[in-house]
Amino acid sequence: MYRDGRCVERRRRRRDRGRERQSAGRSVRAPGQARSTRALHVDHAIRVQEFLNYYSFDYGAAAPGSIAVEAELELLGDEATYDLQLGVNATAPADAPRRPFNLTLAVDAADTMSGTPIQRIKLGCVALANSLAAGDLVSLVSSSNGQQVLLSTHEVAGPGDTTMIERCNSLAAGGAAGLHGALSTAYELAEAGHDPERNNLVILLTDGQAGAAIEDVELITAAATGDGAIELLVAGVGNDSNPTAYDDRLLSALSDAGHGAYVFIDSAGEAAAVFGERLLSTTGIAGREIQLELTLPPTFELVAPNAAEYVNSPPPVEPQRLRAGVALVLHRRFASCDPSVVELDQLVRVETTVEDPHTGELLSESFENTLGELIESSRARLVKGRAVVTYAEVLRQLQTKSGAGARALIDEALSALELDSQQLDDD
Questions:
Q1: If you average pLDDT over every residue of the chain, what do you get?
Q2: Phi, psi of 69 (to 5 degrees)
Q3: Which one of 155-169, 182-196, 221-235, 307-321 scores highest in mean pLDDT?
Q4: How many CB atoms lie within 10 A of CB 176?
Q5: CA-based max dimension of the chain
Q6: What is the pLDDT of residue 272?
Q7: Rounded to whole angstroms, how far apart are CA atoms 306 and 312?
Q8: Rounded to whole angstroms, how far apart are CA atoms 186 and 173?
């Protein structure tokens, strides 16, 4: 480890400040103090790195039975700061074996779903029916006027199963808001059809206006944990007539608890694509428990508001999944505390390990290159990632700014985005 006095002292100061912040932010419940109610509290803070999940990056798919990892690096104008982006990808869905489905659709059919939202759900449901294969199992529960079980572990005859399409088209809005009843029934149906040889999944379709309770998260979390996991895919359809009522953070929290994907359906075409051509990449899990180990040259340190806490006391991290055909992208900024000792022949190494979701086998891959070769290589995906992170970071900071301060922040971000957009070829 690099032990230059300036670097060590800087780390010490950051560590001390980090401990002070951790101590100041600690909350202790006094004896006899009432516990919290069962209402679910959702953190609405913007998670900057999560925005990378909403954009596509053309990292190449891995060969069957393996994973692929790539790294890109750019030295910034101060000659001491570096942007680094990693991309991890699995086998393309078309090359991966397709496991039969055990799917349970939980449809939020509250009054707010009338009109466009319920129509998008019906289109998505029909697209799903056209994408399934003979032998797949499907259950369908709607919260309309109570819990209506429209299909119960129905075995699909093949693509375009007429019974499923008929039930999809019968969906209608009408009833009180609330996800608990539909979710509880959906998980009972999913458990009834559970098979370790199948892809067991609950799909929640909602306009994002219904509330959820802690019990719902506990139910979702318990089902997604262990060998007999039933994961949750959340599909938010939104409501064009009342877009501000859409609770994005709630739906994101539910998908996190269920270890599944979260998609937003803003049009009929998107509904057909998510449950049609993109079904396998949306629902297929290519790897569990992703482990990434990054080795950088001495003197390199993470640059971030919470870097000290991250380095000296890493926060707990939820196990990450790798989706079939969808690259996992990480974008970070580092700086050398003593650029005079950095050499272009120093190595950057990335090692990644992923657990095969079906066999439990550990798949590993590594990437290694010198600083100089990375700096000279193409970095279009890194530039795109930086533009996404810049945009998200501005949104995060705007939550606490207004007036001239907000305007200055926006102007600075637009200038940075303009520089990056010139390298993106209208991507």
A1: 81
A2: -135, 135
A3: 155-169
A4: 11
A5: 73
A6: 92
A7: 10
A8: 18
Predicted confidence (pLDDT) at residue 275 exceeds the cutoff of 60:
yes
Q: Has residue 327 got a pLDDT over 50?
A: yes
The C-alpha atoms of residue 226 and residue 387 are separated, in whole angstroms, by 38
pLDDT of residue 316: 53
Q: What is the pLDDT of residue 171?
A: 94
Nearest to 120 by CA among 168, 55, 166, 152: 168
Structure-token match 């009054």, residue found: 111
- CA dist., res. 309 & res. 307, Å (int): 6
Distance between CA atoms of residues 242 and 245, nearest Å: 6
Mean pLDDT, residues 247-254: 84
- Residue 212, CB half-sphere, CA atoms under 13 Å: how many? 28
> Which two structure tokens, joined as six digits, stand for 259?
């270890």
Judge contact between 127 and 275, C-beta under 8 A: yes
Alpha carbon distances (Å) from 227 to 200, 268, 318, 370: 11, 36, 17, 41
Total number of residues shown for the chain: 427
Residue pair 290/354 in contact by the 8 Å Cβ criterion: yes
Token digits of residue 132: 């399934």
